[in-house]
Amino acid sequence: MLSTIVQQSWKRCQESSLKATEKANDQIISSRRIKEIIQENHPLIRESFPLFTKLAPFLLSTEHIALLSDQDGNIIHTVGDPVFANQAQKVQLQIGANWTENNKGTNAIGTALIAQQPIQIQGEQHYFLENRFLTCSAAPIFSPTGELLGVIDISTRKEYSHPFALTIACMIAEAVQNRLMLAEAERVIALPRPLSPGSAGLSLPLVGLDRDDRIVSLNEMAKKQLVMGALGTTLQPEVERTGANNIQDRRKRVWSMSASSQAMPYPRLAGSCPIFLQAKKLGQKAAHVDFPVLLNGESGTGKELFAQMIHETGPRSGEPFIAVNCSSISENLIESELFGYEGGAFTGANREGRVGKFEAAKHGTIFLDEIGDMSLRAQAALLRVLQEKVVTPVGSNQSRPIHARVIAATHRNLPEEIKAGRFRADLYYRLKGVSIQVPPLHKRTDLIQLAEHLIQKIAGGEPLFLSNEAKLKLQSHSWPGNVRELQGVLMQACFLSETYEIAAEHIQLEGLVEAALYQEAEQVVPSLRETELHAIKNALYMSGGNVSQAAKLLQIGRNTLYRKMAEYHITSPMNQGDL
Ligand SMILES: Nc1ncnc2c1ncn2[C@@H]1O[C@H](COP(=O)(O)OP(=O)(O)OP(=O)(O)O)[C@@H](O)[C@H]1O
């Protein structure tokens, strides 16, 4: 029995003289045009791509793919199971195809665009015979002011169809809508959930407000409570008094996802790998206490960014953040640099004297980078300052109080430096109120997400994707220069790519010469075996466990791959352990 929406859609197809037994219109638009479409749909892309990236690993080996189309039915992004993606390509269910009803007859994307509501089109409900092996579930995405922006679709073989796919499509569409609202409104409040039966869904009714508390956006749940006509009106004070919660308030620089206060998000310091998140959580906790912080990690791992996060998300955020690289200042200048000097204190000194970095930081934060490279004499002077909380500028006999918080960082192993007599133990314990170990990139499991984040930043939000081969190439490198090196490689890649895709050839790794430059004596270079194992695991991961595809990605024969899998005891392609 066909639903009314499907019946109406079939009627439209017949009236447009589409022939169900013929081939549907199969034009694929050029990559240049896709790039333009992506640019035209910038907010939609910006808010939906991160959700697709999160969804992608869950779809591998499930025979499902997720697709994003714009409001004209053009498919602009897809993630999911590569094996099913191949089958879907036979009917052009892929990037660049147009799935409006005019082209593809009754189908979830095109019909959801016309009906402007979520819909699942199962096997035989498709108008064209060639599409009847599919079941597709689509949910439209609306802007915070109610315009149709596009569609989220989840497709699979009809044998695997399940109503759950439609729920997931609706949840993703709603998450995109909420993200759009949070990105655009000055203030977002959550209304209390209505108590009526059937309202116990996951979503909160969200209302976006401008500076003057005028309603500028409503999510689906809020529309049900306030109706779309509320747009442009001023929020009634009694609405807030009914128990509405601030979700975001840019005016007060607060951001909370519930009534209880949570760590402030700091998306600039990107990453999702558990050891990295543990360090980030510690940093976010440290932001709210005034202990000194000591950051330890290899060069380029993000220690300075950690220090900025601690400063910016803590109560000192309105005050200065002053970074000092202790290794780049000569030994006889470090005291005047840190503590300041009186006019004419030494040859070449400024006549009026100068305040030191400690004083310049006022009630903010002073970040002492490469603290492990400070001379013993400078260490003694710094220790005195930290103990007495005063500085005495060079050439002066008057001490002045200091108020700045101290965050120090080093790539050196300070306990080893203490043993070798190069670092003072008493200074070490003074600096190490909270100690945070920032992991090197080769120990992180989120290389690709981090790369995608950096690409978005480099490309200024212009969408650019990594091809599977490019991902594999990134993952087979050992990254001795850590995030800084990754950033450099991606900058080059973004520059070289002329379409919306970064291919393997755009990833230019300089191999051993560069590795040697970055390599510190104490760093560990992964062995050839480790690198090979890593590459094999990644290829299997990317191919969703398909050995033939993985072998293709690795550019080796299938039997060679089987032999190597046996050698490394990779028994099940699905069991990739610590990928
Ligand atoms: N998790 C991250 N997310 C986004 N960007 C990052 C991240 N970590 C590092 N970066 C970027 O990588 C570069 C190097 O980071 P940073 O200068 O903070 O490293 P560092 O450990 O202080 O290096 P060094 O010890 O050499 O001073 C910076 O451009 C920084 O913005």
UniProtKB/TrEMBL annotation:
SMART domains: AAA. Pfam families: AAA_lid_14, GAF, HTH_8, Sigma54_activat. Residues 269-495 form the Sigma-54 factor interaction domain. Keywords: ATP-binding, DNA-binding, Nucleotide-binding, Transcription, Transcription regulation. Signal peptide: none annotated. InterPro entries: AAA+_ATPase, AAA_lid_NorR, GAF, GAF-like_dom_sf, Homeodomain-like_sf, HTH_Fis, P-loop_NTPase, Sigma_54_int. CDD domains: AAA. The keyword Electron transport does not apply. This is Sigma-54-dependent Fis family transcriptional regulator.
